[in-house]
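Usage example:
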Amino acid sequence: MTGRDEENDEPTSAPRVAYIWSKEYEKVCDDLPSNVGRVQSPSLNDTNSYSPPACIPLFAHMASTNS
Amino acid sequence: MFHEQEYIEFLLSRPSEQPPGRKRKRSSSTSSSSSTSSSASDPHSTFGREYDCPPFPSLPEYITLLGGAALQSARLLSSHDIVIHWDGGRHHALRSRAIGYCYLADIPLSILTILGKFKTVLYVDLDAHHGDGVEFAFNRTEKVVTLSFHVYEPGFFPGTGSGEERGKGVYNVPLERGMKGIVWEEVVKRGVEMVVAKCDPECFVVQCGCDGTPL
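Running the assembly step on the lines above writes:
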């Protein structure tokens, strides 16, 4: 589970990190009872300050078949 | 599959498709709930879709997205060292009951998916509330060890996690509200180190607090 070179056991690169988020989430999150009346985090709305690296758009196809 | 099929079908159905007052035998996983017997015939009540878990228009889509993300986050561990699921962490949901804003038990879903790959999984819950749902899901196996740090005081949801729980691989650290960050950090560090030394986990699943409630 670590990013290491097996031959010399030296760290060779940063850990491989995956992020899961979907634009489709944003369509439903405002309806969540836990979010009703709550001010959204500016970090999620401000595209200048929020830029998750290598964000994986996983669910676009699922949302399109269930809407 | 972690959830009861009937519960999932009910979550995914539209309000117009749900029969009112359907009789249903309650399962053992719902026995700890506080529903009254008079409401047992109401599926919304039986499945916990009331109070803090009411139905809402996009619930089927939300459930689909959350469940898919839970499974996909586990699968991504085959090609990544760390996987972050931004909307994960619904740690109160039970096998057939929504509770505490948690409709789907995405954490047990993820853990069950990765159990085939890792011998022992350590679940660390850093949310201000006790991770009761995940603990209940795995308190009969030592393959999944649960460790929860949370506020424990009268009236604070869910009221469990006193540190006296019995179960295989169950560890709870009840805390007082208002703990300073540096103290909390030290408590978590020592607690995790102690449990890691005992169970030697191959994989960590960490719930980092998902509802904004401060300690």
